[in-house]
Amino acid sequence: MSTMKRDSFVMKTITSNKEFKFNVSNPFDKLPVTSPTLLLTGENSLKWGQNESLLRNRMQCRAVEVKNMPRYTMGKKFELDDVIEAQQFDRETLNAIFEVAKEMENIEKNSPGSQILKDTIRTVEGYSDIIVMRHFESGAAKRAAATAGIPIINAGDGPGQHPTQALLDVYTIEREIGKLDGIRVGLVGDLANGRTVRSLAYLLAKYQDVKIYFVSPDIVKMKDDIKDYLTSRGVEWEESGDLMEVASKCDVVYQTRIQRERFGERIDLYEEARGKYIVDENVLKVMQKHAVVMHPLPRLDEITVDVDADPRAAYFRQAKNGLYIRMALLKLLLVGW
């Protein structure tokens, strides 16, 4: 997919037989898509949906019985029309999505060709199409959702939010730590521009007795809107310049990269911030045995490669969980619970 320009961006539509690429100056006026279609829009390139083969294999599925979810029944419409912000979800909905994600995990691991939408795949036109959108402007996905008559999934809107990443992050924490209430989480790196940590903070606020530590260079500190939101929800937070101390207290050390593209031409500020906080073997030594290191990936040098061999390095398992969460969202938006 070609690089997007500010006055236009590239859209890619995937069907079961063909692939079309086209540029549009305003993607919300007219979307030339065929049915059934998953429309991906790109900031630079978007691998959210993997590829055409994955879509064909993963989206052919049979109805799955989801247990222990009294509020939701199979065939009931998913209560959210779009996936735009982390604030959309309540705890009950999160638990239900995670249950569906676990079903997706079982299907992916145990079936070479899952069948969840077989037969259904022919009638996807009768459900809807989905637009998966990545854009350089914060709030772009929300504006698209206000215009579109089909579901919008925000796959990252500049420095705004990345709700599907936050969903897989919380899912990973639950799988790795075994709980979401009463946890301590250290968010490290570019917190001013990191859309993943912003969305994650919103979701962590849904849980009880959570404390969040912000560890970042001064130039990229967490913005006040997130701090104010956490305070309004009674979530304890603290800013710290000492990664070692924070790592010794936390269940999760969530590292992010310092993003050069967010600094524009101020390379001096980028170089000042880059490399200040690095997760290495020294950090691992002070971490608790049950704690984990997470990262939304890709990484640069903010986690040293020798950390990869430690069982507490959860970021590759975290990435795999993204497949299950996004399979679950597609299933829920297309066919309901």
Outline:
This protein is of the alpha/beta class and 337 residues long. The chain is built from eleven helices and ten strands.
Radius of gyration: 20 Å
The main sheet orders its strands as 2-1-3-4-5
Q: What is the H/E string?
A: EEEHHHEHEHEHEHEHEHHEH
Number of helices: 11
CATH architecture assignment name of one domain: 3-Layer(aba) Sandwich
For the sheet with most strands, the description reads: 5 strands, mixed
What is the terminal-to-terminal distance? 33 Å
Instruction: Estimate what percentage of residues fall within beta strands.
Output: 5-15%
Structural class label: alpha/beta
Assign an overall shape: globular
Multimeric state = single chain
Q: In the CATH hierarchy, what is the class of one domain?
A: Alpha Beta
List keywords for this structure.
337 residues, alpha/beta, Rossmann fold, 5-stranded mixed beta sheet, 5-stranded parallel beta sheet, 11 helices, globular, disordered N terminus, transferase, pyrimidine biosynthesis, Asp_carbamoyltransf
Explain this structure.
The structure is a single chain. Helices cover 34% and strands 15% of the residues. It is of the alpha/beta class. Among the domains are: 90-158, Rossmann fold (3-Layer(aba) Sandwich), CATH 3.40.50.1370; 163-322, Rossmann fold. The strands form two sheets. Strands 2-1-3-4-5 form a five-stranded mixed sheet. Strand 6, helix 6 and strand 7 (211-215) form a beta-alpha-beta unit. Helix 2 (91-110) packs across helix 11 (315-335), helix 5 (163-177) crosses helix 6 (195-204) and helix 5 packs across helix 11. Residues 1-71 and 120-127 have low confidence and may be disordered. It is an enzyme of class 2 (transferase).
